[in-house]
Design goal:
Layout: H1 10-27, E1 34-39, E2 45-51, H2 54-62, H3 70-77, E3 80-85, H4 89-103, E4 118-122, E5 130-134, E6 142-144, H5 150-164, H6 171-175, H7 182-185, H8 199-213, H9 217-233, H10 237-256, E7 267-275, E8 278-287, E9 290-297, H11 303-313, H12 319-336, E10 344-347, H13 353-363, E11 368-370, H14 375-413, E12 435-443, E13 446-456, E14 459-460, E15 466-469, H15 478-490, E16 501-504, H16 508-521, E17 528-532, E18 543-546, E19 553-554, H17 560-588, H18 602-612, H19 615-620, H20 623-627, H21 634-644
Parallel strand pairs: 7-10, 10-11, 12-16, 16-17
Antiparallel strand pairs: 1-2, 1-3, 4-5, 4-6, 7-8, 8-9, 12-13, 13-14, 13-15, 17-18, 18-19
Length: 645
């Protein structure tokens, strides 16, 4: 009698049913342009893609065996899919980009949604001011940029101050001047605050500054020359001399910028490089004819996913170049769709014409694209390519050394990591090593704060940092502070949220306190590691102290493991110090701001600050003194006094 065949596992049966259902859905898809989305069993989005032909594109995922590639991992997790039919490929591009930004799918090429590009703002006012600005723009003010970095904006502001003498002071400062400030004395401002320039003349300077930022330098020069001659003909020689000085300053600036100046006004130059499973897109910016520098962008989820797609479609024999094209297309879509597109793009690789058409349709003008530029544009592209090569090489070097540090610490602490931890995001289980480090900071017991910083994926995860205000303890009791923060951090934490290592910045005392907390909570003592200062508290002589009874461990000063411990410990200390200082400043000024007090608007706040010389002066003033300020009643003075004390 033969033994019966073993019954299939329930999970296998369920997966077979899911697969059969998906195949039926795929067979019913239309051959039209659209966007598709894959979800796992938990409902989390796995991937968002676009297609000229939905049926052909989606079926390619289910008709081949992808093995252990990234696409294979993704397909094995698909539990549900959604599709949206659109009218054109351009619409598919727009919808795909919006969904990628909204859903943040784990298998798409993703660039950080970087809204931190700075702008130069000319604020709306009777006497507009120059300002450095980050954030979303509005129509109330005029914005120029974006610029690749803060330095480029500040350099431009300094240039405009020298040539056009525009103010940079805040409106509150501007309103209360009775004499010109230092910037007027050093000829960086025309003194509009005390009527040393007429409103018409100041507005003319603003207009000329805007023309300069738009690349119309010759127009500005001609306008200044005509203005100088007009003053001279009217024998207003002092004003003519001032314009002459402006022309001289502008001529000097134009001479200094002659290397960077070309016929183009606003151009973005993009170069892409893929190597070692990582990618870099280097974006160089030309604004107003001036080359302002570049910035490197590094996406995630690059190599395996793109290569698998190219293999499915068999569209290119040069997979490395195809990967670079896909990365560049992803950057163009995520960076420009919904944002500002310059009139010209200089690219290192040709991209899908439909994408460029979508960019032009969005900006309501034609976007010119150059793939093989000449002369100065060629030099710009070569610089961008070199920048991409160098930035990617630097990233790979840093990641290599950081991974070596992680590996060294795992070996030094003899940590047992589950190989399955690395599935999905990375094939390297070390990438899932999570370390949380705590530090206590205060000044003589004042404004005590605890910091918790997180190390994971071979780097510090600043978005997961946390600060804890420590209350109801004796000032300066670091042990009680550590006990409180650990109880708050892990008191209700789920097992999957407990890190592999808990670093404590301290020796036996702090580790003993951590041990007491962990024993009460029933947590594993072996994950507690204290960082104790060595002999003479010298850097490099630290010792690791364990809560589970293991003897101290002293690593060599050149140990990669000790370097990682020091890096994490120093970051926790920095984060705690900055938080403590901010809290201390708040405590010493009464823990409140004037603008938070009901009844104290901008005018009354300005009068208070002017009368008492700042927030500290307002805080130290008595209720009687506060009531002597114009517009401050006795009742409001009492309210202000209570809020600040």
């Amino acid at each position: 009698m033969t033994e019966p065949e073993p019954l299939p596992e329930p999970a296998q049966v369920d997966r077979a049913k899911v697969w059969a259902r998906l195949l039926v859905e795929v067979s019913a898809l239309p051959g039209l342009p659209g966007v598709y989305r894959y979800f796992d069993a938990k409902g989390d989005v796995l991937y968002v893609g676009k297609a000229r032909d939905l049926k052909k594109r989606v079926s390619s995922y289910f008709q081949k065996t992808h093995g252990g590639t990234r696409i294979g991992q993704m397909v094995s997790r698909i539990a549900r899919m959604e599709t949206t039919v659109v009218r054109s490929e351009a619409e598919a591009l727009l919808l795909e980009n919006n969904l990628i930004k909204t859903l943040n799918p784990r298998f798409n090429i993703l660039f950080r949604d970087d809204k931190s590009y700075p702008y130069l703002k000319i604020a709306s006012h009777e006497f507009p001011r120059l300002a450095y600005y980050r954030g979303s723009v509005d129509r109330k003010h005029r914005y120029f940029g974006p610029y690749p970095n803060a330095w480029a904006v500040k350099e431009s502001i300094q240039l405009l101050q020298k040539v056009f003498l525009l103010r940079t002071c805040e409106d509150s400062f501007f309103k209360h001047r009775t004499r010109p400030c230092l910037l007027y004395q050093i000829k960086r401002c025309s003194g509009p605050c005390v009527d040393l320039i007429s409103g018409d003349d100041y507005q003319r300077s603003v207009m000329q500054a805007e023309q300069f930022l738009l690349g119309e330098q010759e127009t500005v020069m001609q306008s200044l020359q005509a203005q100088m001659m007009d003053y001279a003909e009217r024998m207003e020689y002092e004003q003519a001399a001032e314009i002459r000085n402006q022309i001289g300053a502008l001529s000097k600036v134009l001479h200094q910028q002659s290397v960077d100046t070309a016929v183009d006004k606003d151009v973005d130059v993009l170069a892409v490089k893929v190597q070692g499973g990582r990618a870099c897109v280097n974006l160089a910016m030309v604004r107003g004819g001036r080359h302002l520098g570049d910035r490197a962008h590094f996406p995630v989820h690059v190599q395996e996913q793109v290569l698998a797609e190219e293999e499915m479609e068999s569209t290119s024999s040069n997979l490395a170049q195809a990967t670079e094209v896909r990365v560049l297309e992803a950057f163009l879509a995520q960076h420009y769709l919904g944002g500002v597109v310059p009139s010209m793009l200089v690219l290192s690789h040709p991209v899908d014409p439909a994408l460029i058409a979508a960019l032009g349709e969005q900006s309501e003008r034609k976007v010119q694209v150059l793939i093989q530029p000449r002369e100065e544009r060629r030099a710009w592209l070569d610089m961008a390519i070199t920048g991409a090569d160098l930035a990617l090489a630097r990233l790979l070097s840093e990641e290599g050394s950081q991974q070596a540090r992680t590996r060294a610490l795992v070996e030094a602490l003899d940590l047992a990591l589950d190989p399955g931890d690395g599935a999905g995001e990375s094939s390297d289980p070390l990438a899932k090593l999570r370390i949380e480090c705590f530090d206590i900071s205060h000044t003589a017991g004042e404004a005590t704060q605890a910091s918790c910083v997180v190390y994971e994926q071979h780097r510090m995860q600043s978005s997961q940092y946390r600060r804890y205000n420590i209350k109801d303890i004796t000032g300066g009791d670091d042990y009680a502070a550590m006990k409180q923060v650990l109880e708050r951090r892990y008191g209700s934490a789920k097992p999957e949220h407990i890190p592999h290592v808990v670093l404590i910045d301290g020796g036996k005392g702090q580790v003993s306190m951590a041990r007491e907390v962990f024993e009460t909570l029933g947590l594993d003592l072996s994950i507690i590691v204290g960082v104790e200062k060595g002999e003479g508290r010298k850097v490099g002589l630290e010792e690791l102290v364990f809560a589970d009874g293991r003897p101290k461990l002293q690593l060599a000063p050149t140990s990669a493991a000790l370097m990682l411990v020091a890096q994490i410990r120093d970051e926790a200390h920095r984060f705690a110090i900055t938080g403590m200082r901010a809290k201390r400043a708040s405590v010493r000024t009464g823990g409140s701001r004037l603008e938070d007090i009901p009844g104290v608007g901008p005018k009354r706040r300005a009068k208070l600050l002017q009368r008492f010389g700042g927030v500290r002066g307002v805080t130290s003033a008595s209720m009687e003194e506060l009531a002597t300020v114009e517009g401050i009643s006795r009742e409001l003075a009492e309210e202000i006094y209570r809020a600040l004390h």
